[in-house]
Prior knowledge:
- Helices cover 34% and strands 34% of the residues.
- With 118 residues, it is an alpha+beta fold.
- A six-stranded antiparallel β-sheet has the order 1-2-3-4-5-6, sandwiched between helices.
- Strand 2 (59-65) and strand 3 form a beta hairpin.
- The longest helix has 14 residues, at 12-25.
- The protein is globular.
Amino acid sequence: METQRLRAIQHPNRATILLESWAASQDIIPVKARRIRAVSELSGPLRCLVRRCNSDESVWCSWTYGHRIWFVAATPSLDLARERKKPVLQIKIYNECGQMTTAAAYVHTLHHGWQHCA
């Protein structure tokens, strides 16, 4: 995959679509959870994370169910994508208090969907 195509993946709209695809493929967010689109609906610590995402070219998605919030941030990795010739996202999951609960890289393959990068 040439660098130009890999850079296109890093565009915020494309990266958000990839992040939504990744989240839908995981069993971490309850089916009944509601998507949060307004920053004002997030807790103070999560609003700080949104500002950080905006400054470091990351994208984010968030969901709520009851008192819980799942905040997922992703940064496309050009180096890992170039190495694997497929889109790679560095994913970080945070709870409603802004504490990171998980961090890992995932690659998207045509035949196997999202897989954890070893």
